[in-house]
Amino acid sequence: MTALDMEKIIERSGDAKRCRTLLVETKDIMAKSAIVMDETQWLSLASHLSAMLYRSIHQEPIQPLDSTMFSEVSQGSIELAVAVCGLLPNLHADEKYLLSIHFEAAKINN
């Protein structure tokens, strides 16, 4: 991942300053739970967070999800996702399920 790749992701959010803050706050939340991501995982998460911020700004909810599809995701990963989703207004409640996959994958790969 280059700095240019990350900058493109941040710019797509619609608010680069807020996106940078969101990325830092998310890293802090992850650190408190000892979640470590490799570069590819972090790039994927950053892209998702940028898209979440865009949806938050433009009040564009995701389509509702069947929460049973995420029954194998640990409660800890869902709680991390809830904490991160709580940093932004106007997100659909099901956003936490999509976000939790990033944390679960990082846990499995560590």
Descriptive report:
With 110 residues, the chain is an all-alpha fold. The chain has a single domain, classed as PRD domain (PTS-regulatory domain, PRD, Orthogonal Bundle). It has 5 helices and no strands. α2 crosses α3 and α4 packs across α5.
The count of DSSP E runs of length 2 or more, i.e. the number of strands, is: 0
Shape descriptor: globular
Q: Which structural class do the helices and strands define?
A: mainly alpha
Helix fraction?
55-70%
> Could you tell me the strand content as a percent range?
under 5%
Give the overall pLDDT as a whole number. 95
Q: What's the N-to-C terminus distance?
A: 20 Å
Helical segment count: 5
For the report, how would you describe the main beta sheet? Answer: none
Order of helices and strands: HHHHH
CATH architecture: Orthogonal Bundle
Rg result: 13 Å
Task: Please indicate the count of domains.
Answer: 1
> What would CATH call the homologous superfamily?
PRD domain
CATH C-level class: Mainly Alpha
Which regions are unreliable across 5 or more consecutive residues at pLDDT < 50?
none
CATH topology: PTS-regulatory domain, PRD
